[in-house]
Amino acid sequence: MEVSCKKLGDRTMPQSSAFSRDSKRNPAVVSREVWIPPRGLAGTLNRPDGARALVIFAHGSGSSQFSPRNIRVAEALNRRGIATLLFDLLLPQEEEDRQNVFDIALLAQRLKQAVCRVIEEPDVNFLPIGLFGASTGAAAALVTASGLGDRIGAVVSRGGRPDLAGAILPLVKVPTLLIVGGADYGVIELNQQALEHLGGEKSIQIVPGATHLFEETGALDAVIELAADWFESHLMAGNSSATKADPRKPDAHQ
Hints:
The chain is of the alpha/beta class and about 250 residues long. The protein has helices at about 70-80, 90-95, 100, 105-120, 135-145, 185-195, 220-235, 240-245, and strands spanning about 20, 30-35, 40-50, 55-60, 80-85, 130-135, 150-160, 175-180, 200-205. It is about 30% helix and about 20% strand. α1 (about 70-80) crosses α7 (about 220-235) and α4 packs across α5. The chain is globular, with a radius of gyration of 17 Å.
């Protein structure tokens, strides 16, 4: 389902204007809460100083915004100069119906709405955007990437189900990295099958010994390195124009 960003101007909840700096964790990162219309989904936008790209997280089940694994990945990306948006695709009451977790059209619609919302933010709307999907959120990320043209520059899937994007896979032209645990039997095969159908630049990386949640020692660190390198390569390489285009910079229009 296509979503027009022009139709998302009405917000059901006011945007929070509160900014905070956690000097103990990362003094260079400014965090604030944003609201995704029309359902009022809450998200956390983290912008490091001098950010040159933005990655939006999509998790099909459970909380993406408060997931310890997603937070670790997001913090690592922040340290590399990549802004992040963590938000939940489903409201808590919606997630109680497991059919919603596998409703890729619904999840993709929510993710597109998040993209449309975040490009309203003046401090990040000039940044190239990547999507980081996990579980069924990976399929939603691919569907979203196929429907938003050049606005999405890269996709990374962590232990995802890209196969659930189905007939959309050949239409995905953005660079896509599939990361799978070496002990995540069954999911490996589904990712390999999806890889064959993806239409653009693509790669699959197997993390040896890792299970679905990458809980083994060093497994999530491997995911972080692979994802960060992919986003840096496809979103940030040669993107010096992002800094120049930042409207807050005094020399932005010189």
